[in-house]
Amino acid sequence: MAGATTLMTRSAKRQVGKTRATTESKFVRGMLIGVTVLFLGLFLFMPLAVVFATALQKGIATYFASLNEHDALAAIRLTLITAAIAVPLNLIFGVAAAWAVAKFEFIGKSLLITLIDLPFSVSPVVSGLIYVLIFGLQGLLGPWLARHDIKIIFAVPGIVLATTFVTFPFVARELIPLIQAQGSEEEEAALTLGAGGWQTFFRVTLPNIKWGLLYGVILCNARAMGEFGAVSVVSGHIRGLTNTIPLHVEILYNEYQFVAAFAVASLLALLALLTLVLKTAVEWRSHQQLAENEPNWSTAIA
Amino acid sequence: MTIRFKQRSILPGFGLTLGFTILYLSLIVLIPLSATFLKASSLTWAQFWHTVSSPRAVASYRLSFGASFIGAFINLIFGLVVAWVLVRYSFPGRRLLDAMVDLPFALPTAVAGIALTTIYSKNGWVGRYLDSLGIKGAYSPLGVVIALTFIGLPFVVRTVQPVLEDLERETEEAAASLGATRWQTFRRVVLPAILPALLTGFALAFARALGEYGSVVFISGNMPMHTEITPLLIITKLEQYDYAGATAIAVVMLLISFALLLGINLLQKWSAERLTMGRGEPQEPQALASAELTLQES
Hints:
The complex is a heterodimer of chains A (302) and B (298). By secondary structure, chain A is mostly helical. Helix content of chain A is 77%, strand content 0%. Chain A is built from 16 helices and no strands. Chain A is globular and about 65 Å long. In chain B, 77% of the residues lie in helices and 0% in strands. Chain B has 14 helices and no strands. In chain B, helix 3 packs across helix 10 (182-211) and helix 12 packs antiparallel against helix 13 (243-277). The longest helix of chain B is centred in the C-terminal third of the chain and has 35 residues, at 243-277. Chain B is globular. Chains A and B meet through helix 2, helix 3, helix 5, helix 6 and helix 7 of A and helix 1, helix 3, helix 4, helix 5 and helix 6 of B.
């Protein structure tokens, strides 16, 4: 027993002292754990392993050469620019929407929440298509845009728009339940004590929601940098100009440059791993905050 | 008392935040989405029907629905096992597995697509064994199922996990002390409690798989009538400058996603009710919100 205590988790602790009839036999346990390891190994670890194995197949020099190449660098730059526009936009929207939805009661609130979630249920391909139907040459605004020589589709603005659409709900849907659960007592106290609206937001609300906010931003950013379907419809695939990292991976792969394709893909895989690490850390941190953060208004306002 | 649009509150910023929310939502989501329906309305009903019921389109629906269903079903079974193992057992590496479950959310679909294709193609790590059994992994409907299983993996695990964690162990003890075997307890006590969450996870995985594009295009081989999913058919039509055809099929997909969204919302409501019913103290956001309301009114 003593040796096991160090490994014991919350759920394990609850099991201690329970009779046999409320747990499974050792055999069943072993089998279920085996199935889990096998299933996750096959579907999660193997794809990740194959990315790095193929990328490094021809050595580390080839790996870096495939990354340090004109079109690859242009793709990386475009992906960073796109995320740098789409993520802050959705961040501001997410905070505003969460404030309106979680702090106030009004008619049509649940409809609004459903509409905010809408982009998640739309196929990425359709998400791209809707912008082509508006801004494309055949689209509603197409002729007008062409006359004024403004390019949106097959250009950077279209890519940013499509990315903004697919990452639209991330921050809002993290924050709404969080702010709802926290209630408004602290803000009301701050306002009664004479704080202004913005002051209350920055000194009371923001510190309370910062981990949830960060969580939403991390997920939003991962999707923004990795989006493929929607961006593929609006990008036009012009090498060095309108290719994001995922589109560049596709081109290399279809040209049978497998090592280069996987080398560039490994950047996205690293981003995914980093996202998971940050996400786990934030989850851990926000649990801690939740545990220790029973109302302590005095420090928040002082 | 007259009905008013908004309940009274001393908090500021309602007009600003709601106004901005609705403006931004309209610009990015609502107006572009309605443009699709506007464009589709320029087709006559006969043209529309001809496009969406063509044999090639029907074959793509069959593959998209069938493969999504199988993928979501695989996730239903294995997702339950994974959630159970992660919540109830402790073993070395549990936390790592738990964190890794979200990989399909974090890994860009194109990367997943080329990785899975490499694994399941004829010379791949798994594909070579399938090949010796005469089974084609990549470039077949099976490949589509594999990709869609990967994409939907986190949903069932992540919806079932919190419900399992919150489950009162006392009910299981009661069942056991009344003479139920472990399997009976699971089937009659645990399963009914987690069923709504399980179905919600299944529906979410199914909905996600239906629209998936990036991971599937690489592994499917994209043969019309055989391994062509519906989102790919939209892209094909776009590349042939058949905007009307692409829009017609997009409208069908949109309507299906809206129906699924509605179904998922109902499932989640059922799930939340189930959860509060079993407990003494109500913990749902609605309950909190109404408590908050009474506070504001007084």
